[in-house]
């Protein structure tokens, strides 16, 4: 039934998809359909790079929980280095996943509404049965983390385990699996939450903020790995 609905949508939207040009893709990156004030909860994540040891327990848990096929990934840990001199060399580990942007370039270019921002949680998700595989969202994402799931044939990416663990009242799989507590997940609207307390007291940064995407994956930078002049 879902395949039939998707085929219907694909045919119905073909004309609309073709009408959207590259200029719209660029302009959409700075557009926002849902403002901060519209969400009751606004989930975000901190990756503390000072605690990450690159064990990849997070990405393994993500794959198992969300049944992500081999060959594609919702979450990767990128290792850079080694830095320093032997025997005191070290590596730097960073998280590569959906940045859960408040300014949603992927949502803004989707011609079928498959990519959407949940007004109750602020989480950017994908309705796979609506996706026609046009690749517009993949082209619009400045973080290059979306992919076409080879099983569902729809766009896919991290949704903070919205459809698996979150609706059961559990933290995302990556957060629970981390052995060093390098990941903190919580509600930015709750001033008493751990994530808000950490963000207010610890220097942090986000990726590509100059694009106006307002990503909600915050990072606490590893002290090591910086270029020393």
TrEMBL record:
Cited InterPro entries: 4Fe4S_Fe-S-bd, 4Fe4S_Fe_S_CS, ET_IronSulfur_Cluster-Binding
Cross-referenced Pfam families: Fer4_11
Matches recorded under PROSITE patterns: 4FE4S_FER_1, 4FE4S_FER_2
Domain 4Fe-4S ferredoxin-type residues, every copy: 43-71, 89-120, 122-151
Domain of life the protein comes from: Bacteria
Keyword Iron-sulfur assigned: yes
Keywords: 4Fe-4S, Iron, Iron-sulfur, Metal-binding
Stated name of the protein: 4Fe-4S dicluster domain-containing protein
